[in-house]
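ARCHIVE CARD
Drawer: 12
Card no.: 0347
Subject: one protein chain, sequence and derived structure
Cross-reference: see card 0346
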Amino acid sequence: MKIQNVYRVCFLFIAALAFLPFQWACSSKTSVPTFAYSYPTPTPPAMVPAGVPVPVSSSPPASGLFAVASFAGSVVDYGSGPTTLVDTLVTLAVNQGGVSTAAVTLNTPTGPQSCSFLITYNLGTYSLSQYYNYNQYTYTPGGSYSVTISAGGYNAAATLTAPGGISYDSAGVVVTATNPGNYDAAIGDRAYKAPATTYVGNNVGYPFSFPSSAYNMGGYASPVTFESVYCAAQTMAIPGATGAFVGAEVYSKQIIK
């Protein structure tokens, strides 16, 4: 079992939602913002930490502030108790140009976390700059998180309640979340023997039960090791900017059958 699997868990969601032309329509959860999406070659950088579902985000507008701000708590539970890693990433542009002097802060229940300039990507017709926070602060499901961005004379801010509080039943089949957010996803892997993805579900809701096919033994005798992952995300627009504010908890649990 490899910890890297946690960062791979929602790769399909990120590939579809953060890289490729796509329209995210979510009829049952209308609070999720939806944007038209088009990127030129070369492909832009990921706009969220690995493992975080994100709505499709538009190209930066000709004028104004574009921002996708995200934070995530990735919980790894492989039998010795859960461990949580946090990640914070903000991608922005002003008038379709990168900016290295923005003031970006994520306010958390345990205090403010400043994001430092990381890199600017030149994508031909426009540029994107990224800001990152390197601290391992506490991720608090149900806590209030807000982001403030000041760049190029533009100001934007948004507040959301962090999703998560994810737990599994003893069989690793039924998943609940104290705050599921407005987008939920699940994936199942047979990690050993004969590694294979056994289940992928988007917008699965909660409580959620992994189907029996997620624990397909592949014809092998017990023990067979599986990794079940559930992601609860909350997504909203950012007043003052084109883009989105995203918070997520991704819980990865090892199951042996």
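Annotation on reverse: The CA atoms of residues 25 and 147 lie 25 Å apart. The mean pLDDT is 79.
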